[in-house]
């Protein structure tokens, strides 16, 4: 790990701790993290940065659990099982914390392109692309007027509806590494289309990540297409 990567990890750990401190005393934060309250006070207030090992532990283990709990608290399901995650996808500061936690937890390789689907996946995609210093590309259900060449992927759903996504062909270059992300994975149909687009563009998929997985069907469907890591911040049954 070079100096810049070390500093970034330390700052990410501090950001996670500050989020946790918003609703906890230092004693409660100590119980969550296992770190001394005095050290936590110095980290949160910017007097000193945690060491690399501590920072990694905070981001990977404590950070994932804390963000997953926060995500569960913000997500609502209606009587028909539809998910309202607007409290998450509209909060860019929260998503900016998710990106390093996801990278540490699932060990995604740094991609050239973060690929998602418009529109709810864009804010998460932006956070992930910023963290990895990658390009952001998002597929849409309609073609851009001024674009001449597209990668197109379509699928007929069980309901009989045909779902089609389009991505400008210039968004992925042959040999690019591609991380597929989305806010929600349920059946896996959208992720399957995104993976197909990445492969049509001769990209090398480095992983699939979603904020929320509803059941295992979508995750299993993605794993059947790629050997790259597939993960979600939290799973609802």
TrEMBL record:
Keywords of the record, alphabetical order, are: Glycosyltransferase, Transferase
Q: Which CDD domains match?
A: PRTases_typeI (cd06223)
- MF term (GO), any: adenine phosphoribosyltransferase activity
Q: Which positions fall inside the Phosphoribosyltransferase domain?
A: 93-196
- The reply on keyword Glycosyltransferase is yes
* Record-listed E.C. numbers: 2.4.2.7
Protein name, UniProt field:
Adenine phosphoribosyltransferase
Checking SUPFAM superfamilies in the record gives: PRTase-like
At the top of the EC hierarchy, this enzyme's class is: transferase
**Keyword match Glycosyltransferase:** yes
Q: Which domain of life is it from?
A: Archaea
């Amino acid at each position: 790990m070079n100096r810049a990567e070390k500093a970034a990890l330390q700052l990410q750990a501090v950001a996670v701790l500050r989020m946790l401190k918003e609703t906890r005393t230092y004693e409660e934060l100590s119980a969550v993290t296992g770190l001394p309250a005095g050290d936590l006070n110095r980290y949160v207030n910017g007097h000193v940065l945690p060491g690399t090992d501590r920072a990694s532990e905070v981001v990977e283990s404590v950070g994932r659990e804390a963000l997953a709990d926060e995500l569960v608290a913000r997500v609502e399901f209606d009587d028909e099982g539809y998910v309202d995650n607007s409290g998450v996808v509209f909060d860019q500061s929260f998503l900016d914390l998710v990106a390093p936690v996801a990278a540490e937890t699932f060990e995604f390789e740094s991609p050239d392109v973060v690929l998602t689907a418009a529109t709810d996946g864009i804010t998460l995609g932006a956070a992930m692309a910023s963290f990895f210093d990658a390009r952001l590309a998002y597929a849409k259900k309609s073609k851009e007027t001024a674009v001449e060449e597209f990668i197109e992927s379509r699928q007929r759903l069980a309901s009989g509806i045909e779902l089609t996504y389009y991505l400008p062909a210039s968004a992925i270059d042959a040999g690019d590494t591609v991380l597929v992300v989305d806010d929600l994975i349920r059946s896996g149909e959208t992720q399957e289309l995104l993976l197909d687009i990445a492969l049509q563009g001769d990209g090398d998929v480095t992983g699939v990540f979603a904020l929320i997985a509803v059941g295992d069907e979508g995750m299993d469907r993605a794993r059947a297409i790629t050997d790259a890591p597939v993960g979600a911040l939290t799973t609802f049954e």
